Amino acid sequence: MERYHINIFYSQEDQGFIADIPDLEFCSAFGDTPGQALAELALAKAAWLEAARAAGKPLPQPRYRPIIYQVAS
What is the pTM assigned to this prediction? Predict the structure, then answer.
């Protein structure tokens, strides 16, 4: 299975953590902790991939890579 980049961030509005996979449109999950959000995302990812396969849609190749800035000290 392909490895997809995962974002995890705190949402003040939702008062919890959101995890998402940018390469899989609308694939995201919520949790009270980063670990819980990640565990829920694993379930969402499996369901997303299963639905795509069942519909005969090609699975997207991992493309998203975060931009990492390095600040000189």
Answer: 0.82
